[in-house]
Amino acid sequence: MKHFTTLIVSLFLSLAPLSMMAQSKVAHINTQQLISEMPEVIAAQNELKKLEDQYAKELETSAKEFQTKAQSYQGDAENQTDLINQQRQVELQEMQQRIQEFRETAAQELQKRSAEMMRPLYEKARTAIEKVATAQGFDYVLDSSPGGSVIMATGKDLIPDVKSELGF
What we know:
This protein is mainly alpha-helical. It has helices at residues 2-23, 31-37, 39-76, 82-135, 159-166, and strands at 26-29, 140-143, 156-157.
């Protein structure tokens, strides 16, 4: 009888956590996929690509100008005085430095613009996920993106409902 009581108590204690887990509703969503498919994100990426292409053209033009000037100076160096050649060398170094500074500034500007454009879109996605999850009674929503914190994602996938909420 004593063993039977111990068995019943241990069985009850081992099943109690399972019943607590059954009470929580868990869903998952691949946030990377959701965000990559949002029309606003696609438009923002296109705008950033245009800006990046514009900066690349400017850099290419500056580099060609530098190359042309360097070749011209090199070809004419024998006909010039040492002082003029030194001035030309300084001019080329300054020009190269300006090109490098522009490259760095352009990269920083692209990163800044990307953050400014994407932050509200991430917040919009998060708000929609929370709204759909609350409406459907989920207690937890796990991110099933690669590298996310999900071991197993067999629960309900909210991506179709959140896309619907976002209008796409």
